Amino acid sequence: MDTLIKDIRYGVRSFLRRPGFLVIAISTLALGIGATTAMFTVVNSLLLRPLQFPEPERIVLFYGVNPKIGATEGNMSIPDIVDWQKQSQSFEQIAAFRTGGLFLSTGEETERVRATSASPDFFPLFRINPISGRTFQPQDMEYTDAITVAVISHSLWQQRFGGTPDVVNRKITLNGRPVTVVGIMPAGFNYPRDTEVWVPLRLNPNTEARVNHAYEVVTRLKPGVPLSQAQAEMDTINKRLEQAYVETNDGWGVRLIELRESMVGELRLSLLILLGAVAFVLLIACANVANLLLARAASRQKEIALRTALGASRLRVVRQLLTESVMLSTVSGVLGLALSLWLIKLLIAITPPNTPRIEEIRIDLRVFGFTLAVTVLCGLLFGLFPALQTSRPNLNETLKDSGQRGSETGGRNRAGSLLIVSEIALSFILLAGAGLLIKSFMHLREIDPGFNPDNVLAMRLSLPPGKYPLGEPRAQIFKQLVDSVKATPGVQSAGAVLSLPLRADEFNLGRGVIAEGKPLTPQEQISALYLATTPDYFQTLQIPLKAGRMFTDQDTAQSTKVAIINETMARRLWPGENPIGRRFIVWYDEKFYREVVGVVGDTKTSLDKEAEYQMYGPLAQDPNWGSLTLVARTVGEPGAIAGSVREAIRAVDKAVPTYRLRTMNEVVSASAAPRRVPMLLLSAFAGVALLLAMLGIYGVTSYYVTQRTHEIGVRMALGAQLRDVLKLVMRRAMLLAVLGIGIGVAGAFAVTRYMTTLLFGVKPVDTITFVAVAIVLAAVVLVACLVPARRAARIDPLEALR
User: Coil, strand or helix: which one is 61?
Assistant: First the structure.
């Protein structure tokens, strides 16, 4: 310990004598450690940290699957759920739930809150007790037409009720009716989808149809039952149900997936790739610091030689040098940890707000342990190689006054060159990955969403519960609301739709469709997205009419039932034929045919996927909806008249709440966000890597010129020209670049194939991208070595030969 303290003291004095080296080395390493810590914090919070429930690995979600109709993540029906509860032996509880929204009235204000209707086993399944009050009891589940009790989230309790303890057993107003708050859940529990209010899922067994796949299912496995065993049991049960109920269950099954995996499964690959990318940046930072230490070692050769001559063993010298490198990494680690706090906030800010578990991103003990391990490892990684190189001095040569060159210098040059080649190779891999994502994102932005998003304002409208009866009254009030908005100065046109394109609304209704004249069997059924609209909706979003006509005010409840379909659905149902005048029926939901009066262009439900089947019905013929999305095309900036649009709505009915206000350009941007964020982060990491590589090349080339000053002087004295000196320096640097790029190409071939799911319209091995990256790297190397090369060319031969 005494020796270690002496080594630390000497290391401090040594570093303080070279403050420039100290600042550069610590800054470089702190940047690498900070970025790595921040990225690991996100990975740890989203992928590694268990959910905040007891034994979360036993909580499983059901996905309804039916290959015959292309369903992969469907919901389930209540009769099927009841059969699973009776026949399965693998689960402790099976709970059904359904998400949506309710309207909470506090005084004169009414706001929409995220709500979940849950079956009796929902809360017991999670093993989470309320911090006050209780959860649902059997009597709460008795079927009635109105909600009578509710459990609220901790966040809603704090934000809307001030955290006062007397909320339990108090009545609040939900959907215009008094409801008793019976419990408050603890902070952090908001499953599913940031729920703020839970209400009992009250079902009338006599009215629940087996074909009504409207509910989600979450279960808890029994202790010791593996997921594979439960999946096999469910497959067997569903085969029995399929045989017993051929008409409704043909092809239907379930896929079991751990709850945590269902929440973050799509993010896993992106996060792991980004963590690997930032690890590359850290390796490049370590290589740069190692190069700095090698250059610093040149000025310490006499010191090391004297230590060795006085009896210091090689191990003792290596220990001194490693102590110094670990000191560097320790200071860098502390600064990197501080930097990571800012970087984490930045990552959260650019992450899409609907990202699962985003509120759980924070530094914990695992992150501290990771940072400590990375710090120590970096100290050993960048310090060991220079220490081994420096600890073998040639005493004969080094202790002479002229002993600054020779084999030692050659060895250090080779070591520095090896590190630079590694930096260039790693930079190529990062730049290639970033280039592929940038090209993918550019392709994505070029995709036509099927509508014109410019100058369009959108907001959700919901009718006050109980105020407008089903049927004609609802159709009339929505017409009045749309007409009032149309009359607002600055509004060109306005319409309303059940759900916006790009799945921008929570409500997306899929219905099975059978064309007239085809067998009414599930095998002939296709699933299409159903959208009720007002007549001017298509004009407002500028969705093109391809055939037939648009809806008009003459399409009323008393007229022929009509529909407009998109091109994809028309090609599927009537390939090569004119669909106008053809008819179809919505399977099980309707007993009448709808006549196709128009075909419109496809609107995307996701920018990176093929268009889905879509059908539109006039709101006047389907007037039972309580919520629609209003769209208004404006003359100028949509946000500038948002207040006027809201006033126009209030002029019709002050009780109609408006929420989820956004522009359609924001909707398009949000749809691209899952691909934009990885692209931005990987591009940033690649940029940092490129900068570090550039600094490393500059440093090594400068050191090379310094070591060969005498040789260059001799060459110039013997008649070497400016171009000869430039060629001498540049040739070596470009050779390193060629070697690094060659290794990087091989590495990129191996790595980018794992990015396939992140790419759109681009192959993992894209020749244009790889060539562009190679050119950029070569240019960077050229620029980095140009200054040292010009300095070498200006050497005074007389001065160099002294």
Answer: strand
